[in-house]
Amino acid sequence: MLKVEINRTLPGFKLEAAFSVDGEVLGILGPSGSGKTMTLNCIAGLIRPDRGFIQLNDRVLFDVSQKINLPSRDRNIGFVFQNYALFPHLTVSENIAYGIRHHSRLEVSDRVQTSIENMGLDGLQNRFPQQLSAGQQQRVAVARALAPEPEILLLDEPFSALDSLTKEQLEMQILELRQFYKGHIILVTHDLAEAYRLSSRIAVYDAGKIIQCDRKEKLISSPANQKVARITGFRNLLPGTIDEVNDSNISIAVPGLGTLKAVRYKHSRLTSGMSVTIGINPEYVKIDDHPGENTLNGTLSRIVEEIRGFRCFFQLDDAQGNAYQLDAILSKSDKDIIPTLGNNVYIHLSSEHLVVITH
Amino acid sequence: MNEYLSPLWISLKTVLVTTVITFVLGIAAARWISRYSGKLKPIIDGAFILPLVLPPTVVGFGLLLLMGKHGWIGEFLALFNTTIVFSWPATVITATVMAFPLMYMTTRGAFEQVDTNIEDAARTLGASEWRVLYSVTLPMAWPGVVAGAILSFARSLGEFGATLMLAGNIPGKTTTIPVAIYFAIQDGNMKEAIYLMIIVLCIALASLTALAYLKKPKPRYRGLTVNPIPSDVLYTSRKKDNPS
Fold first, then answer.
1. CATH code at A234-357
2. What are the pLDDT digits (tens) for A96-113?
3. Res B17 pLDDT > 90
4. What is the DSSP string of A74-128?
5. Are the C-beta atoms of residues A36 and A188 closer than 8 Å to each other?
6. Which residues in chain A have Cβ-Cβ distances shorter than 8 Å to B135?
7. B156-183 per-position pLDDT tens digit
8. Chain B residues within 8 angstroms (CB to CB) of chain A
């Protein structure tokens, strides 16, 4: 188990992070400059936090109160850098062997060979990093980080420099890693889909703080606040007040627009009278031909054609002159029901996909 | 014949010893300053480069004050009945002081070009600071380090003003080639001056050529070139080489 509780203050920036990882993949998600990489650097001992502690399994790596700060070389941590940081003057084999110490020559070459086979790098042993494709370099970086058998693997935006096809293949490889690597993994990324595919829990960063850390399913179904909602893909946010809560439903009044019903999830602590924000994913916004339950009235303001559908922007005007925008993704087969620009439409928001955010 | 050979021998000894000392000192200072981030950094950096900016006679005079009979170092050495002034080690000391800034500046620049992520990668893989230096930083900065060595070699071969101040002109003991040329011309001995000049030209050219070979990137080739080659070409040619 890795336990982290750190603080670091820089001019104009403050990192405050507390989380733990236990034999799983933790995704760290957030915009650039939110402190994700700094957190990894603190765990790896490349940056010293101002306060707090870091504990990996039964070893204390860093503790201000006990004045412990292990140097990077003694932390037994595998780090895959964003630009891979391979040794350009060493071959693939030598890169992988670099971190394997205290073993006989035979054992080292055995272990290098094993990790070369595990990462699908056979035949590239004697090449130099600049003779490899980006995808191959990334696999060498992972093999090199895992070769000393670290207790935790830190991946810093490992896929950001790759084309989408290579990225997919390497994601598969990271998923397969679990077959031979049983330690903890932290994956830093700014891509929600990537974090969702690869990790079991996700910590969302914003301006140096963790604004939510939950199982990935829970993060999507109940974002803690509007910032999390925006990062997890809820582009559409409407303000409202809870009218009524019963066993299965919550009805929420959206001022000037109407009333929406949302499915009530267990354990939700919602009571009537609370002011909330309603979020819905663009995929669940549909066009209806008649008014009905969970239907709002709006006008179509813009259409953008995408590869697999249409992105429609609807404008909703309340009585006070405020305008809200709803973003919808409609499939190509819906082409006939999309009205012309500026026309009035009924927009249906399905109740099971409405998310109620309290902050 | 001895009037040519003696300055040549003294110069060669001085230059070789100086280059080795500046090489080690320059690397150590460059490594230290590129990892040091205190408030005194600009001052220390300036102090290291100072001999390059000052007139050689000023450096020579300063060293004379420091190492002369009443200087700190001079008084300290007097306890062991040793004097530096007007002895052969003085030629090495002045040449080292004058050549050091060039080695330091060039090496520091080369070290700062090395991606810190790569050094950090070595640290996370368990490397000590010493291992990071010799297995990552130095090989990656190698062309710059060699360039620094060439420059400091050249500077110490040409050292004249400060050497004359501290080591003087004692034939067979401290007379290096540049000093010998100067006094040969003063005495109207043009033949000796020209011979010495030709010797200097040959040494300089030969050493620069030799060092230029050292400057090539370090990777061992193992039948592969360092330049990127399309993977299919590379792979088939490698297979032919090793049919096993």
1. 2.40.50.100
2. 999 998 788 888 999 999
3. yes
4. GS-EEEE-TT----TTS-HHHHHHTT--SS-HHHHHHHHHHHHHHTT-TT-TT--
5. yes
6. 98
7. 999 999 999 999 999 889 999 999 999 9
8. 115, 117-118, 120-128, 135-136, 139-140, 217-219, 222-224, 226, 228-229, 231, 234-235, 238
Name beta bridge partners: A349. Answer: A285
Q: If 0-12 CB within 10 Å is exposed, 13-18 middle and 19+ buried, where does residue A14 land? A: middle
Query: Is the per-residue pLDDT at B153 higher than 70?
Result: yes
CA nearest neighbour of A45 among A19, A26, A70, A79: A70
Q: Number of CB pairs < 8 Å for A and B? A: 85
Tell me, what amino acid is at B168?
G
Q: Three-state SS for A136?
A: helix
User: For residue A326, what are its two tokens?
Assistant: 């709803």
Query: Are A128 and A156 a contacting pair, CB within 8 Å?
Result: no
> Starting from the edge strand earliest in sequence, which strands make up the sheet with A249-254, in order?
A258-263, A249-254, A236-245, A275-280, A355-357
Residue-range domain boundaries for chain B: 2-241
Q: Which two tokens stand for residue A308?
A: 């697999």
Q: Which CATH superfamily is domain B2-241 in?
A: MetI-like (1.10.3720.10)
The predicted pLDDT at position A27 comes to 94
CATH 2.40.50.100 segments of chain A: 234-357
**Using an 8 Å Cβ cutoff, are B216 and B147 in contact?**
no
Token pair listed for A141 = 């970086």
Please determine, for residue B231, whether its predicted confidence score (pLDDT) is greater than 80.
no
pLDDT, mean of residues B14-18: 95
Least confident of A114-123, B88-97, B101-110: A114-123
Question: Which of A69, A84, A86, A128 should be substituted to probe chain B, the one whose Cβ sees the most B Cβ atoms within 10 Å?
Answer: A128
Which residues of chain A are under the pLDDT cut of 70?
266-268
pLDDT higher than 50, residue B234? no
* Fold type of domain A2-228: Rossmann fold (3.40.50)
pTM of the model: 0.82
Query: Which residues touch B131 (CB under 8 Å, ≥6 apart)?
Result: B122
Answer for the pair B133, B123: CB distance below 8 angstroms, yes or no: no
